[in-house]
Each structure stands twice: as structure tokens, then as C-alpha cells.
């Protein structure tokens, strides 16, 4: 399924691992609820206080949900990142980028007052099944 990354000099350039916009043909959409850094085995928050560890756990949880839906990070077209501290933006971007090595999805990042269980980050995603192409 073809994917078009939308980029224009008439809007600010992306300041992280995300696209200004992504265009995909209509298909089966997967809407993933927000994930926080809960270890699925222990039920406990992992990496508390270490934003990099929390981000890895969040992305692993999100990856598990995507796999259960029959898709992967390669088919994600939009994410929203919720941060308790916008000062963590750069650290989150470094970890997040590893999960989207090519054609990262469109993304919004917002600062929030608090997240469940004292988490520092939450991420949700939208995927279009069948969108991944070569590369």
C-alpha cells in the first residue's frame, strides 16, 4: 500500500522523529489506546523516574498491542506523546526514533499535569494495516 510523506517548506520543519503529515489510502484502521510503562508480567511501573527506560517500556507495550492487532510500528501513521515534563522531549525522541527508523508517523507531543500510576510518559497510536511498503 503506497505511503506518501507530506512535507512542505511553508510550515515549520519537524523538530523530531516524525513527519509533518502522512497520507495513506483508506484501509483497516487500528486505534491503540495510550500505553504507560507498566510491565505486563509484574503489573508494576518500570523505570520510574528514568524517562528513557519508561519510553522503552511504553514502546514495547505499544508494539505488543500492534502485534496483537496484526500490524507493527511500520504501519503506524499517527502517535500522540503525553509528557509530564517537556524537558524530557529530547530523551524521548532518541528512544522513540529507534522504533521508527524510516518514514516516522505524524505526531503530536503535549505536556500534561499528571499520568496514571505516576508515569512520566504515555503514547497512543493509529495504524493502517497494509500500509508498510519496501524499506
What can you tell me about this protein's structure?
With 135 residues, the chain is α+β, with helices and mostly antiparallel strands. The protein has a single domain, classed as 60s Ribosomal Protein L30, Chain: A. 20% of the residues lie in helices and 27% in strands. The protein contains two helices and six strands; from the N terminus they run βββαβαββ. It has helices spanning 51-68, 89-97; strands spanning 4-6, 21-23, 28-35, 76-83, 106-111, 121-129. The strands form two sheets. A four-stranded mixed beta sheet has the order 3-6-4-5. Strands 1-2 form a two-stranded antiparallel ribbon. Helix 2 (89-97) links the parallel strand 4 and strand 5 (106-111). Helix 1 crosses helix 2 (89-97). It is globular. The relative contact order is 0.28.
Keywords for this entry:
135 residues, alpha+beta, 60s Ribosomal Protein L30, Chain: A, four-stranded mixed beta sheet, two-stranded antiparallel sheet, 27% strand, globular
Structure summary:
By secondary structure, this protein is an alpha+beta fold. It is built from two helices and six strands.
Amino acid at each position: 500500500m503506497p505511503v506518501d510523506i507530506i512535507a512542505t517548506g511553508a510550515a515549520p520543519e519537524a523538530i523530531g522523529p516524525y513527519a509533518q503529515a502522512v497520507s495513506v489510502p483508506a484501509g483497516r484502521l487500528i486505534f491503540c489506546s495510550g500505553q504507560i510503562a507498566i510491565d505486563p508480567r509484574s503489573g508494576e511501573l518500570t523505570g520510574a523516574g528514568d524517562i528513557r527506560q519508561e519510553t522503552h517500556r511504553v514502546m514495547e507495550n505499544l508494539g505488543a498491542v500492534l502485534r496483537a492487532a496484526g500490524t507493527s510500528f511500520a504501519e503506524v501513521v499517527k502517535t500522540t506523546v503525553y509528557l509530564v515534563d517537556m524537558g524530557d522531549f529530547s530523551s524521548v525522541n532518541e528512544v522513540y526514533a529507534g522504533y521508527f527508523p524510516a518514514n516516522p508517523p505524524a505526531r503530536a507531543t503535549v505536556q500534561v499535569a499528571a499520568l496514571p500510576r505516576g508515569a512520566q510518559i504515555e503514547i497512543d497510536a493509529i495504524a493502517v494495516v497494509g500500509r508498510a511498503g519496501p524499506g
